[in-house]
Amino acid sequence: MLKVENVTKYYGTNKAVDNLNFEVKDGEIFGLLGINGAGKTTTFRMITGLLDKTEGNITFDGKKIDYNVTDKIGFLTEERSLLTKLTVIEQAKLYGGLKGLTETEINERLDYLLERLEIPEYKTRKIKELSKGNQQKIQFIMAILNKPKLLILDEPFSGLDPINIELFKSLIMELKKDGTSIIFSSHRMDHVEYFCDALVILVKGRTVLEGYLKEIKEGFRKKNIIIEGSVNESELKKIKGVLKVEENKGVFTVSIENNNVVSSVFDYIKNKKDITKFVVEEPTLNEIFIEKVGESYEK
Amino acid sequence: MKNKLKLLIKDGLRKKLKTKTFKIINIILLIAIPLVINIDTVIKTFGGDFDDPVTVYVIDESGKYYESLKNVYEQTTLSIGNQDVEIKNAEKKYDELKDEMLEEKSNDIILRIYDETKKADLTSFDYVDTITVQLLTNALNTVKSNIALEESDIDVNVLNEINAPMEISRTYLSDELDENYELMSYISNLIIPVFIMPFFFLLLMITQMIGAEINEEKTSKSMEIIITSVSPRIHFISKMITANVYAIVQSLLFVAYLGIGLFVRTLISESSLINSFGDNISGLLKTFVDSGMLTDILAAIPWIILLLILSFIAYSLLAGILASMTTSQEDYQQLQTPLMFLIMIGYFVAIMASSYEKSIFIIVLSCIPFLSCIIAPVLLILGQIGIVEVLIALGALLLTIFILLKYGLRIYKVGILNYSSNKLWKKMFMGIKNKE
What we know:
The complex is a heterodimer of chains A (299) and B (436).
Chain A: E1 2-11, E2 14-24, E3 29-34, H1 40-47, E4 55-60, E5 63-64, E6 73-76, H2 88-98, H3 103-116, H4 132-144, E7 150-154, H5 162-177, E8 181-185, H6 189-195, E9 198-203, E10 206-212, H7 213-219, E11 223-228, H8 233-238, E12 242-248, E13 251-256, H9 261-269, E14 277-281, H10 285-293
Parallel strand pairs in A: 3-8, 3-9, 6-7, 7-8
Antiparallel strand pairs in A: 1-2, 1-4, 4-5, 9-10, 11-13, 11-14, 12-13
Helix pairs in contact in A: 2-3
Chain B: H1 2-17, H2 20-37, H3 39-46, E1 54-60, H4 66-80, E2 85-89, H5 94-104, E3 109-113, E4 120-124, H6 130-151, H7 156-163, H8 179-219, H9 222-229, H10 232-268, H11 272-291, H12 293-325, H13 329-335, H14 337-352, H15 360-365, H16 372-382, H17 387-415, H18 424-433
Parallel strand pairs in B: 1-2, 1-3
Antiparallel strand pairs in B: 3-4
Helix pairs in contact in B: 1-10, 2-10, 4-6, 8-10, 8-11, 8-12, 8-14, 8-16, 10-12, 12-16, 12-17, 14-16, 16-17, 17-18
């Protein structure tokens, strides 16, 4: 289990991370979210031992993170971190060797992962000759080559098509099943919603939201009502507690302040004859994120 | 950690030694170096006018010169290896020979020697190379003197007395000096630029290589993955060892190519140039041993090696630190310019050392880290400094390495994860202050 307790990091006088607290249990996927410059990379670097924290504690399975512990960590960085002049097997031998794997272990594991990601023919190919998506696959393989106990995934689906995203997803879920603690960071909120059990949202190094996804959604007062049928948009907007109405191909999404507004909206549509759908939905993570961060999300 | 260090060194060397560039460059060197060493054979193989033998037809009107001239000329050319000229007694008359040469546009020569006037003339269709003319002139003068002495009926002892060279004995007021040493010092001055050239190139190679490696890992972000598994210190040491081992391997290969070139030369060429070259080397070595200079150099070798090893480490550390601060290859090229200057200053000062004997300025420079590895060995061999100065240079180097390790590694640790040149020097200064 990874424990981050009261961690603060200063760069000179600039506070990059401010009193951060969270824990990731074995077999749990944890989302670390925030816009660019929120302190995510600094947090990852502190967890992997690349940076020293100014204050606080970071432990993994109760031990301070040092070079014995980092052998059990896998790290997929947001940008490419491959030596592209090397072949895939050469790169695996370097990164795997640095994680303490033997050549036989590296070969076996690499063969398995290349097979799983449907690129076994690239084993002896130079990385620079591969497409962006395939390089991302190799980067992912390098991160999980050592069957990590803690895996950090920073934008893992970058440059991947939907089919390959599914291949990644199945491997990530397999690792979760095997008890790997995973920290996941992505600008794609649908992916975060799919994977993460719990999350933290950072703004300028400070935590603005934290907890289990389900609880966060339940605790978020704003809801959406989806209505399909002939309704008047301006009449809907006049109802007290309605925040916003959006129409798309005859489907209206009505944002409301809280659950109490549902009955008012229902009263309005109950006399309408051609209503085919009326559903009260939880807010999406994207909405929660925008609400909390206070600005639109960068893709 | 030891295993990881070994892995990084092995990987670094494999990356360098298995590259196509390394293989291609070494194939080119393997072909080019023996070719350069045997360039005369190569040129001769393709032929040309220079290759045609020249016959000197001697018309000796006195009847006294021919035999002696042939002997003297052949003896001289034998010792210097210029044997493409044959001396022959002319069996035809001057006009006949001249007509033949005109008709054939021949490169032969007619040497007509007159008796009474002590004059001779050379006739040729084309230009004659100056060496051949000079050799013929010298041979003629020697024969002329010998004939004159014989005709004067001078006593043999008197003749020997006349021919005997003047003996000049040297006296040194200092008991420690030796005549041969003076000669060798002169020769050393000539060979010093060649002697220090390999160190010069080794230093350039090491600084370039370390910089390029660190820069590549940094710009590709693979540094972040590597540093999560090994400490920056281990990573840095691995780069240092890899670069030095690579430089040594490349140097040894270079020496091997030289050896192959010389071996090929001895195999394919039986010309007297090689023999005389061998004789010259043997003679030089004998003088070297007799002068006591060889003993001095052998005694200095351990110190020189120590100085070189420590200097290579210091240069590697500095190159690594500079590379860690850069964000692109172009940045590193700029930042390593001062290093290149340091190496070049050392090289030029070392060459000038023989002209400015015991210059205090040069002796002081020989104790300064980064310069000492090139200047101090030269001064030591020339006898301009002793072991004390070398020890001072070694002490200064050790202190530099200690400082670079203590403070430079802090900069390295900050530098390798820094991707912006914004406030670079401030970040580096903060890095030095950070004791962790």
